[in-house]
Design goal:
The complex is a heterotrimer of chains A (99), B (225) and C (219). Chain B contains eight helices and two strands. Chain B has a two-stranded antiparallel sheet. Chain B is globular, with a radius of gyration of 18 Å. Chain B has one domain. By secondary structure, chain B is mainly α. Chain C has one domain. The chains are: A mainly alpha (99), B mainly alpha (225), C mainly alpha (219).
Chain lengths: 99, 225, 219
């Protein structure tokens, strides 16, 4: 690697940092507050005494989401387990054949 | 030395291309047919649907780019010349820059035809801010081609390169295409929101710099066996 | 490595069983009620997704520069976990959005960029599986570019005015919400460690099988 190539890369990475920074600064400017969407929330407001009827609203979706997490992760674990069992089997066979 | 090597590689590619003009003609033909298909789909009774023109322009550019990338490196593979290039006692990254410059020139040449065509068929006011338009096109094409050249070069040795190039290239370059589309769509509005266009443009530049840096940095280890 | 599986499995099952209890006791959010509680595993899953992208990207870079096959095995495991945790993020998110926004999906910057990140790593797995010889390097390059997108996904909500809640939601949590949240993050981390060690172990065993077959071929 010649020194020029290194210089070019060095320049490129410095320029990358600068450009990213410039983009951030530019985009953070108030000039770019944009478009039709209502702003996303920036903090959650907890309440203590929500009426019970509202408490359980859309419970099914919440349960579905939690189930997706549980089932998804366990399924992935099970898949890894099965693949591992298969590979271990192959390993045993290969080792016995070598002997 | 670095830039001379890059220019030499680019001149080699251009000389081959100027003799046959194969890639330019086939790519252009393909891109123009794409635009025509979209024109049939999206222009109804002289009315264009929404910002369709901006999206169609960038789709045509990215399809044409994929085709050109594939063909350029297919030519190298066919003649086994990429191996010769890699054996040459020059810097690998200079070869990358040379190939990139060649593809950029090719795509800019194609855009010279595509942009007026889209403006005509979709009666889009693309030329209301020529400087911004040129900036968006240049930055977008550079970002797309920077990643494309890297992956197309790597794929020369792969088995299913025709399928893999879009699979690799599109997810990574979609941010660039989106920024290009949104920026161009703003130019089509009656009152151009210049600040927003500049925002998309600077985003494109940021992507260009990140993609170019990563490509220059990884080209050498990727092309070494 | 195998010795770690048992304890990690038991610990993560306990943590995941306890999580709903803690979440149930957390205060309700003013406007969203119960549905806001999806947040307690949507966000940790997103954190794991980003962590995984960095693991995959960094170890891909190490593999490219140092040519160490061990690094590649870690990168593959990381890449697959991006897709798994990304799927959780992309499923739980719309379930919340259906109530909070009234639609399953909007094409704003945060959602689009998160989907893209997920797609890049799906592409990564496709390349690894069907790329043939040299796929490891191709995948490595893709992972590095994928990792470069992560900061963009993270800051997108704070830069653009999107509908997605901002990153400050996490740092401004009241005490009642912060404890269950960080508990869930910890549970996801333990689960991540379990899945990750198992996945890397699988890749190591595969390499051993391959090695044995290569040796057998030489004889």
């Amino acid at each position: 690697m010649s020194s020029l190539g290194r210089t070019v890369r060095g320049m490129a990475s410095r320029a990358a940092a600068l450009a990213t920074l410039a983009t951030l600064l530019l985009a953070a400017g108030p000039a770019f507050a944009q478009e039709e969407a209502p702003p996303g929330m920036s903090a959650f407001a907890p309440v203590q005494n929500l009426p019970p009827a509202e408490r359980m609203a859309h419970g099914a979706l919440w349960v579905a989401a939690y189930a997706v997490v549980w089932v998804g992760l366990l399924l992935f674990l099970w898949v890894i387990w099965r693949r591992l069992a298969k590979v271990d089997e192959d390993l045993r066979r290969a080792e016995s054949r070598r002997k | 030395m670095f830039f001379r090597t890059a220019l030499l590689v680019m001149r080699k590619d251009l000389t081959v291309e100027v003799r046959s003009r194969e890639i330019l003609y086939t790519t252009l033909f393909f891109a123009v047919s794409c635009i025509l298909v979209f024109a049939f789909a999206f222009v109804k009774e002289g009315e264009v649907l929404g910002d369709a023109a901006a999206g169609i322009l960038w789709i045509a550019i990215s399809f044409a780019g994929t085709l050109a990338l594939g063909r350029t490196f297919e030519r190298e593979r066919h003649a086994e010349t990429l191996r010769a290039l890699m054996l040459a006692p020059v810097e690998r990254s200079a070869i990358y820059v040379g190939k990139l410059l060649g593809i950029l020139l090719l795509l800019f040449a194609a855009e010279l035809v595509l942009v007026p065509l889209v403006a005509l068929l979709f009666s889009a006011a693309l030329f209301s801010r020529p400087v911004l338009l040129v900036g968006l096109l240049a930055a977008g094409t550079l970002g797309f081609a920077a990643v494309g050249t890297l992956f197309a070069a790597m794929l020369v040795r792969a088995r299913s390169r025709d399928v893999l190039l879009p699979v690799l290239l599109y997810p990574i370059t979609i941010p660039v295409i989106i920024a290009g589309v949104r920026g161009t769509a703003l130019l089509l509005q009656p009152n151009v929101d210049q600040a927003m266009v500049v925002m998309w443009l600077s985003l494109l530049f940021a992507f260009d710099v990140v993609f170019l840096t990563l490509s220059l940095w990884t080209f050498e280890p990727l092309m070494t066996d | 490595m195998r010795r770690l599986f048992g304890p990690l499995l038991i610990l993560s099952v306990i943590l995941f069983a306890a999580a709903p209890v803690l979440i149930a006791q957390a205060p309700y959010e003013q406007t969203m009620g119960l549905i806001q509680k999806i947040f307690y595993f949507h966000v940790p899953a997103a954190m794991m997704m980003m962590l995984s992208s960095f693991i995959c990207g960094i170890w891909s870079a190490i593999f490219l520069l140092r040519k160490k096959p061990e690094a590649d095995r870690i990168a593959v495991a990381g890449g697959e976990m991006v897709v798994v945790f990304g799927l959780i993020v992309l499923v739980t998110g719309p379930l919340w959005a259906r109530i909070a926004w009234g639609v399953w999906w909007v094409w704003d910057v945060r959602l689009t960029s998160a989907l893209l990140l997920w797609m890049i790593f799906c592409g990564y797995l496709l390349v690894r599986k069907y790329g043939g010889p040299g796929a490891d390097k191709l995948g490595a390059a893709m992972a590095i570019f994928g990792m470069a997108n992560v900061p963009f996904v993270y800051i997108s909500v704070d830069i653009w005015r999107t509908m997605h809640p901002k990153t400050t939601v996490v740092t401004t949590l009241g005490e009642g919400m912060a404890i269950p949240f960080w508990f869930c993050v910890f549970a996801f981390l333990v689960m991540y460690a379990l899945l990750f060690t198992a996945r890397v172990h699988l890749e190591e065993q595969r390499a051993r099988v391959e090695q044995l077959f290569l040796e057998a071929g030489d004889l």
